[in-house]
Write a structure and sequence with these properties.
Blueprint: E1 2-3, H1 6-16, E2 23-24, H2 30-40, E3 45-48, H3 63-91, E4 94-99, H4 112-131, E5 137-142, H5 151-154, H6 170-182, E6 187-188, H7 194-202, H8 205-220
Parallel strand pairs: 1-2, 3-4, 4-5, 5-6
Length: 221
């Protein structure tokens, strides 16, 4: 497990058991990402799940905050995925689960950076999944909706404005994402409402990749 807070990591590690390894690192920096990348190369399952919301109009946003957010949710995912794939492809097995968001499909004003980063993760993951067809390495994209985590609170968004009663539990989201990965699905939308089930059917990864491939070929003429 990776996070910036060593104490919180150690508390959670004690709950999970003695096999849990923790790394205190900042994935919004190249140094922290490089540190974690070394560890990723040794594992058969890597989950990229870091996220932060940058709120407000882009013109008024702090440029350093924007850069750190995009590195955390974009560049670090790509760097760590690459690091993990090196070992997985060599061993002939492994899986990567990248956590995007339903926001990847909804360009929301006031959350432009978050939506853009999650859209990048979506596009990147589907492309990598296509590249790895024919190998024993699996790549899965999960796009949860509102989930009970500290993401909104850290961004200063009141619970009353996030539909907190409609949020899914993290355990539920994780369980469904891992089950979808095991079932060989390319994309999952692990939330409970009917709307999300319909959305999940519309955005199946294989369909999205085929459409993208057709458009790319047409564009190249």
């Amino acid at each position: 497990m990776v996070a910036r807070d060593q104490k919180q990591l150690e508390l959670l590690a004690r709950e999970l058991g003695e096999k849990t390894v923790v790394i205190a690192a900042d994935l919004s920096t190249p140094e922290g990402t490089a540190q974690v990348g070394i560890e990723c190369a040794e594992h058969d399952l890597v989950v990229n799940c870091a996220g932060v919301m940058v709120r407000g109009e882009l013109a008024k946003a702090d440029s350093n905050e924007l850069e750190r957010a995009m590195y955390l949710m974009g560049t670090s995912v790509m760097v760590l995925t690459r690091a993990a794939l090196g070992g997985m492809v060599a061993r002939g097995e492994g899986a990567i689960l990248n956590v995007s968001s339903r926001a990847a499909f909804v360009p929301e004003p006031g959350l432009a950076v978050y939506c853009a980063a999650k859209a990048a993760v979506r596009s990147f993951t589907l492309a990598i999944a296509k590249e790895l067809e024919g190998t024993q390495v699996r790549v899965h994209l999960t796009c949860p909706g509102n989930t009970h985590t500290a993401l909104h609170e850290r961004a200063g968004i009141p619970a009353s404005k996030t539909g907190s009663t409609l949020r899914a539990e993290p355990e539920y989201v994780a369980r469904l994402a891992l089950a979808a990965l095991e079932n060989g699905e390319r994309v999952s939308v692990p939330v409970e409402r009917l709307f999300d089930r319909i959305l999940a059917r519309v955005i199946r990864g294989r369909v999205a990749v085929k459409i993208a491939g057709i458009l790319t070929r047409l564009a190249r003429g």
